[in-house]
Amino acid sequence: MTEPVEQSLFEAPPMGEQERMVEAILFASAEPVTLPELVARMPHGCDPAEALVTLRRRYEGRGVHIVKVGDAYAFRTAGDLGFLMQKEHVEQKKLSRAAIETLAIVAYHQPVTRAEIEEIRGVAVSRGTVDLLMELDWIRLGRRRMTPGRPVTFVVTEHFLDHFGLESARDLPGLKELRAAGLLDSRPLPMGFGATTSDDEEEAKTGQSELFED
After folding, report:
1. Residues 168 and 69: beta-carbon distance below 8 Å
2. Is the confidence at residue 207, as pLDDT, over 80?
3. I need a labelling partner for 202 at 20 to 30 A (CA). Which of 30, 36, 44, 172 fits?
4. Span 9-24, pLDDT tens digits
């Protein structure tokens, strides 16, 4: 005997209305929104995943797009209109070469342990450098390695992906694109992002000066 299908006491809103809800949530959110977060905010029975498919098509070719950032979604200005958003501002100090190399190694080798970062760079990694990158929300702790000591690993964050308009770390650009985006300076990096002798000495210093350069 076939069991009766349990039905909700409330009907889900029409798909057109669900699309409006998703659109409103993404528009008002300061951070990318995940599907579980959309489900939690919307009425029972809604299917935000289906609504997103249609919405993303609607915004193709428009001034703003709905893009995927990791496992979340957000409105972003169309790439070819970015020049309209430019404004004068005070330039912040750039990351030191030690911090840049550490970030690059994490981005391209994640998940990676501190020991592996030091092996690639050829120099010990300052705790201050890692702390700074975590404070900036560029990197975060990943899973522990199933090796003796169970060392923690480091991976890049969704904030890092969002800043550079990437859906995942697999979409990371090459060195030329990174320099054009301002992440890397014009100085050549050794193979494997290794540090030079002068950089080793810089890394050995303590204090805030090692994290930034003039």
Report:
1. no
2. no
3. 172
4. 568 899 999 999 999 9
The answer to whether 196 and 190 have CB atoms below 8 angstroms apart is yes
Phi, psi of 80 (to 5 degrees): -75, -5
Please tell me whether residue 73 adopts helix, strand or coil conformation: strand
Element (H, E) at 72: strand 72-77
* End-to-end CA gap in the chain: 77
Q: Are 49 and 56 in contact (CB under 8 A)?
A: no
Residue with the two structure tokens 């890692």:
130
Which tokens in the block code for residue 119? 């092996």
Q: Tokens for 202, please give them.
A: 């810089």
Q: Check pLDDT > 50 for residue 4.
A: no
According to the model, what pLDDT value does residue 72 have?
94
Neighbours of 84 (CB within 10 A): 9
Nearest in space to 161 (alpha carbons), one of 205, 107, 117, 113: 107
